[in-house]
Amino acid sequence: MQCYVCKQNGVDRDAVGICIVCGMGLCSEHIVRSDVEIQEGGYPFPSRKLKTAVPRILCPECAKAFGGR
């Protein structure tokens, strides 16, 4: 699998990970490791924020949507 961001720029670079949100293949240059807060709860509510964030692999676009870089 190739890095999607690199491929758009005409560069062939192997992907080393996949964005957990959109499924985009990413190389080590474009991969973003981010701690994402997780909510837990029953239907319909109440929900509560878990004590620790969960590390996730995101693409630059999804990281930006989550409030990252």
Describe what this molecule looks like in 3D.
The structure is a single chain. The chain has 69 residues and is an alpha+beta fold. The chain has one domain (4-65). It has helices at 4-8, 60-65, and strands at 17-18, 25-26, 32-36, 39-41, 47-49, 54-58. The strands form three sheets. Strands 1-2 form a two-stranded antiparallel ribbon. The longest helix has 6 residues, at 60-65. The two termini are 25 Å apart.
Features:
69 residues; two-stranded antiparallel sheet; 6 strands; 16% helix; elongated
What topology, given as strand order, has the largest sheet?
1-2
Structural category is alpha+beta
> Main β-sheet, in a few words?
2 strands, antiparallel
Mean pLDDT: 87
- How far apart the termini lie comes to 25 Å
Work out the radius of gyration: 15 Å
Number of strands: 6
How many domains comprise the coordinates?
1
Tell me, what's the shape?
A: elongated
What is the strand content? 25-35%
Fraction of residues in H or I helices: 10-25%
Low-confidence stretches: none
Number of alpha- plus pi-helical segments: 2
Q: H/E element string? A: HEEEEEEH
Question: Secondary structure elements and their pairing?
Answer:
Elements: H1 4-8, E1 17-18, E2 25-26, E3 32-36, E4 39-41, E5 47-49, E6 54-58, H2 60-65
Antiparallel strand pairs: 1-2, 3-6, 4-5
Quickly describe the structure:
The chain is an alpha+beta fold and 69 residues long.
